Amino acid sequence: MKTFIQVCFGLLLFSCVSFAQAVQPSQTDLLKKLAREACQDIKQVDFSQKSEEEMKLALGLPLVTVFGRHQDELKAAGYNLLDAKSSEKLGNDVGVQLVFECPDFMNMMVKNSKVVTDIAQHNKQGPSGTISGTLVNISGGDFSYLQVADDKGKIEKLWWMEYFDGANLLVGNPQNRVNKPIRVRYVEKEMFNSMLKDYVKIKVITGVE
């Protein structure tokens, strides 16, 4: 639940500065309705003194509640709340509508602009993806990484740079997971390679199942 709320909040912020993601005309009325319903709860909250986590909950919970009430309609419109990418798209699409349908949403950002800016920076990231396959190895060191073989035998290196959902599955006795199926979510980030004296793209783990 916490992850879903964070995703929704991050996409809402992104939506305030980018409207490029298109939606089908048939979805627009539903998205507007969801935005208006969420707005009823959002406008009751004073965001001026809230911390980052408090703001995430205050914005995310109304969305979770509204999405839950309209699961059948969302499914018919092509959204799948159990799929991460579909949920991200829904958060973005509703965020766009909130900008237009809920003036209180924009007022919230003005009242606590510093926290909003900090959160937006935290949510700024490169392309993301998922790799499914067999966990071949877990390498330790200053920065650990996983080696995962996909169904074609190609081995991908995925870096363990920070806490992620499912990290507890690999802590304690990680070798128990070796040679077993694994699904890894990641985001691409640019890191400076001192040997190459240049920036290189690496895959940083954001979740495992």
What does the model show?
The chain has 209 residues and is of the alpha+beta class. The chain folds into two domains: 2-123, no CATH class; 128-208, OB fold (Dihydrolipoamide Acetyltransferase, E2P), CATH 2.40.50. It contains seven helices and five strands, in the order αααααααβββββ. The chain has helices at 2-15, 25-42, 52-69, 71-76, 84-101, 103-111, 113-123, and strands spanning 128-139, 144-149, 155-160, 181-193, 198-208. A five-stranded antiparallel sheet has the order 3-2-1-4-5, with no helix packed on it. Mean pLDDT is 77; it is low at 1-11 and 13-23.
Please write out the topology:
Elements: H1 2-15, H2 25-42, H3 52-69, H4 71-76, H5 84-101, H6 103-111, H7 113-123, E1 128-139, E2 144-149, E3 155-160, E4 181-193, E5 198-208
Antiparallel strand pairs: 1-2, 1-4, 2-3, 4-5
Keywords:
single chain, 209 residues, alpha+beta, OB fold (Dihydrolipoamide Acetyltransferase, E2P), 2 domains, five-stranded antiparallel β-sheet, globular, disordered N terminus
Describe this structure in a few short sentences:
By secondary structure, the chain is an alpha+beta fold.
Strand content range: 15-25%
In the residues, how many domains can be counted?
2
- Mean pLDDT comes to 77
Overall shape: it is globular
Can you count the helices? 7
If strands are numbered along the chain, what order do they take across the biggest sheet? 3-2-1-4-5
Radius of gyration: 19 Å
> What can be said about the biggest beta sheet?
5 strands, antiparallel
Distance between the termini: 16 Å
Uncertain segments: 1-11, 13-23
User: What is the SS-derived class?
Assistant: alpha+beta
For the secondary structure, the number of strands is: 5
User: Residue share in helices?
Assistant: 40-55%
Instruction: Return the string of H and E elements.
Output: HHHHHHHEEEEE
